[in-house]
Q: What sequence folds into this?
């Protein structure tokens, strides 16, 4: 009987050993899988950071390409300034200004309407108030100091305005 019991104890120890070995193998496999996942995630982060920088660079280049013709026309206007009268210069600068607005519109930028509009702090930056007699203009923009610009979903720069204030 003692021999049988020793044999059973040895078998139990063998089974426990093989179970422990299996568990250790599983732990090693999980650790390996975790290391691979970490490396993959690190590589993913590096790749997306590089792609974002590349996209930003391309977007800047696209904007610059859109603006260069405007700069060319300003150069032409300055060349004309040395040879012609002021009316021609003004006409040239007005053309450049229209072209610049067109480039901005193509980029999705629009001018914020201000003068005559009700003051909106989301679109307008009040540079001051001015006393007025007309009650209809109370709380409305009466002077635009600096144009504001926006995209479809974001104000790039609020319009700087003077708001009418009626004391009556």
A:
């Amino acid at each position: 009987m003692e021999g049988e019991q020793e044999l059973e104890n040895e078998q139990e120890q063998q089974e426990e050993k093989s179970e422990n070995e299996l568990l250790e193998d599983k732990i090693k496999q999980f650790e390996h899988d975790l290391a691979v996942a970490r490396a993959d995630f690190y590589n993913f982060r590096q790749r997306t950071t590089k792609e974002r920088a590349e996209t930003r660079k391309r977007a800047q280049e696209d904007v610059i390409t859109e603006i260069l013709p405007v700069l060319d026309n300003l150069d032409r206007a300055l060349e004309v300034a040395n040879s012609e009268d002021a009316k021609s210069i003004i006409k040239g600068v007005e053309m450049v200004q229209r072209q610049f607005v067109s480039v901005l519109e193509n980029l999705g930028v629009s001018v914020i309407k201000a003068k005559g509009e009700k003051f909106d702090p989301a679109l307008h930056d009040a540079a001051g108030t001015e006393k007025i007699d007309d009650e209809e203009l109370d709380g409305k923009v009466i002077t635009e100091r600096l144009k504001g610009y926006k995209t479809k979903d974001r104000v790039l720069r609020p319009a700087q305005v003077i708001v009418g204030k009626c004391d009556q």
